[in-house]
Specification:
With 195 residues, the protein is of the alpha/beta class. Helix content is 60%, strand content 14%. Bound molecules: adenosine monophosphate (AMP).
């Protein structure tokens, strides 16, 4: 099994993804984590991505698609599944992922969207900004990230819903409650077999 976990910023994707990946022995691929690590290390990717990440915009599709392609091609095989967290974030990324799945013959992919009301998302991100010192978790940048989500990422859901089943999970409540809802959704959702 492979999983695409998406949803607005602050919905709890990272927290849930970490646990889910461990439970199902999946490689957890968080594009946000990869970018933050690259920025910290000052690699060419980090230097290119810094401005976008810190201002709450999206890193260009060409950069992020190349990155995900490399990571998946290098690590994924018949006995190693993955959990994508934070990718795809645009319809162009979703299309590129379709092509990649065809190229490397990936079939069993479950798509889960984690949602929460906007005020909850803002509250969680502000809290995280204080706790983790994330530069993009300030009020102004948070509002911008939510706008970016609505404009560029929410169409990904419609894109998938045209041809595949998307499981919507309520991200409100305790971490374990949300995890149980995701597990239930995964048990009920048929794999998307055609890419
Ligand atoms: P996240 O940790 O998923 O909230 O991502 C943090 C930031 O990394 C985002 O606000 C974007 O600037 C950048 N980022 C992460 N994933 C992507 C992606 N798939 N496409 C473009 N930018 C991304």
């Amino acid at each position: 099994m492979n999983i695409i976990l998406f949803g607005p910023p602050g919905a709890g994707k990272g927290t849930q993804a970490t646990q889910l990946a461990t439970n199902h022995n999946l490689l957890h691929i968080s594009t946000g984590d990869i970018l933050r690590a690259a920025i910290k290390e000052g690699t060419p990717l980090g230097i290119e991505a810094k401005h976008y990440v810190e201002s709450g915009g999206l890193v260009p599709d060409s950069v992020i698609i190349g990155l995900v392609r490399e990571v998946l091609q290098a690590n994924i095989g018949p006995d190693r599944g993955f959990l994508l967290d934070g990718f795809p974030r645009t319809v162009e990324q979703a299309r590129a992922l379709d092509t990649l799945f065809r190229d490397i013959d990936i079939k069993d992919v479950r798509i889960v969207i984690l949602i929460a009301p906007e005020e909850e998302l803002v509250g969680r991100m502000l809290k995280r900004g204080v706790e983790l010192g994330r530069k993009d978790d300030t009020e102004e940048t948070i509002r911008h990230r939510l706008e970016v989500y609505t404009a560029q990422t929410s169409p990904v859901r419609a894109y998938y819903e045209e041809t595949r089943q998307v499981s919507e999970v309520d991200g409100l409540g305790r971490v374990e409650e949300v995890a149980a809802r995701i597990d239930k959704a995964l048990r009920q959702s048929p794999p998307a077999l055609h890419w």
